Amino acid sequence: MEGEFSKVSLAERRDFLSRQLDTPFSPTKRRTRSLIHPPAPAKDNRVHARDFHFDLPGELIAQHPAEYRDQSRLLVFDRKTTEIEHRHFSDLPQFLCAGDILVLNDSRVIPARLRGSKANSGARVEMLLVEEIATNDWWVMIRPGKRIRPGTRILLKNSAGLVSAITATVICKNREGHCRLRFDGVADVLTHLDTLGEVPLPPYIRRNKGTIETTDRERYQTVFATQSGSVAAPTAGLHFTSGLLASLRSRGVKVVTVTLHVGLGTFAPVKSELVSNHTMHEERFDLPEETARAVIEAKKSGNRVFAIGTTSTRVLESSAVNSSELKATRGKTNLFVFPPYRFQVVDAMVTNFHLPESTLLMLVSAFAAPNETRGRELALSVYAEAIREGYRFFSYGDAMLIL
Question: Among residues 208, 207, 231, 294, which one has the least CA distance to residue 258?
Answer without folding.
Answer: 294
